Amino acid sequence: MKYSYNDISIVPAITSKISSRSECDPFDKGNLPIFTAPMSSIVNKNNFHIYEDNHIIPILPRNYSLEDRIQSLNDGKWAAFSLSECDRIPNSIYPVHICIDVANGHMTKLYDTVKQLKERIPNSIIMTGNIANPETITTAIDANVDYIRLGIGSGFGCITTSNVGVHYPIASLIRDSVKIRRKRSIYPKIIADGGIRGYADINKALALGADYVMIGSLFAKCIEASDDIYDWEGKITTQQDYNTNPLFHKFYGMASKEGQNDLYGKKKHTAEGICRKIGINTTIKQWSKNAEDYIRSAMSYCNAKTLSEFKLKTKTIIISINTFSSINE
Questions:
Q1: What is the DSSP letter of 135?
Q2: Neighbours of 139 (CB within 10 A)
Q3: 83, exposed or middle or buried, with CB in 10 Å at 0-12, 13-18, 19+?
Q4: How far is the C-alpha of 302 from the C-alpha of 325, rounded, in Å?
Q5: Beta bridge partners of 31
Q6: pLDDT tens digit string along 63-86?
Q7: Chain centroid offset of residue 75 CA
Q8: Is the pTM of this model over 0.85?
């Protein structure tokens, strides 16, 4: 039996020497362990710095021109590229952060491309995925992948599993992948991508051993997530007061019809994602502050002052559906 976030719960330490969550450090090199998904409905040039200012790591999505994304690399930022674009990334003597954004992270061609990039640009820092088989971690290690995204079919806007049938429940996928990685190497860093429905899921992913989480739909609730804001009737509006006027964002991934339109100007393939209307109820700043505090709280319960301790010390248990329902009514 394999499990998802709803099937597990974090167990606190027998005793904790931490008397205040302020003693816990949820940051990694100044950032929370959180990436934005490289989606055009979530990240753009106008809000890129807002995510950065609030300790979240953004990735410039593929709907921007190749020149724009290469400039992002030159600025020391993350940018997403298709597999076919990788040979057009110029050589650099400086570290460049490349996200190879493909749906099927099991392709041999992907790892051959990583090896070629590493040979051509030794300082490149490469993120691949998505995968749904823990054994693929060994392939990623052999190719010197730096970050790998786990999860197929878990995202709020993804319909891959419901139509294709490919899936590996995300909680078990993290745990099983971490076990395999520990036998071989400390790399690649593991990113739990998709299925994060709230702050608790972030903590569960980290407790299972993920180094980072990647989030899309939760950011759609933030007023700054997209330039287009819709009113109750579905019309684009310039309103900003979401407390008195119901406002919405359209959330979709790059495999949806809308995402393909952003990339190609038309629907090019059978869609494996859908567009959802998500109500706006917060700002990126407030969301980030809440995430920081909730991660700190979980760490304090588990007697972990650092993220490394939290990943190593924390235990999780399987819970019944009745238990989950009782704490989420």
A1: T
A2: 19
A3: middle
A4: 23
A5: 28
A6: 999 999 999 999 999 999 999 999
A7: 21
A8: yes
